[in-house]
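Thread: "does anyone have the structure for this chain?"

Original post by V.I.:
We have the sequence but no experimental structure in hand. Need at least a predicted one for the grant figures.
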Amino acid sequence: MQNTKKIVVGLNNPEKKYDATPHNIGKVFLEWLIEKLENDQKIEKGLKWKNNKKVLAKTLEIKIGHKDIVFVLPSTFMNNSGNCVSKILNYYDIDTKGLMIVHDESDMLLGKAKLGFSHSAAGHRGVDSVIQSLNTQSFWRFRIGIRPADITQSKYQFKAGDYVVKKMSKENQKILEDNFEKFYLDMMRWIINS
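Reply from O.Q.:
Generated one for you, tokens below.
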């Protein structure tokens, strides 16, 4: 039987200075996704994020068809994301198989994205925090590539830790946003079919 409840978490750093950084692409995509759902009249307009201190996050509850979806933006910093995610799953009583983590992926090119289930953190500290807090990697991940094509070094020379907290150029932001429509279709397939 399909799970009708789902949690979608956009990993991010909460302070404003991180808003246009690659590490916050999970948050940027979720905010874009909500606006898209409103514009396509799949959900009512004007829904507001709620600041839920019990789960250390802002949440937005919606219904798409017969699926109840909770979108989550942690108020914890990236490296402590697991604290929020474990509280969210307990609060809404949802199994990890109904959990999707949306995050940046420095090993993937800008404009690419990949959906996967039960993978290791592969060096992503936010995802590692989630795995450690839940004591499992059996959850969905939507990885959004942030690696610009003009970075010619191998991934071993590329200093992802520095890059992910620096502001993205307007050009790179546009490349990402131009691909959000494609990411949206992937996300909707997961929401409806899983």
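V.I.: this helps a lot. The longest helix spans residues 170-193.
O.Q.: and The domain at 5-193 is CATH 3.40.50.1470 (Rossmann fold).
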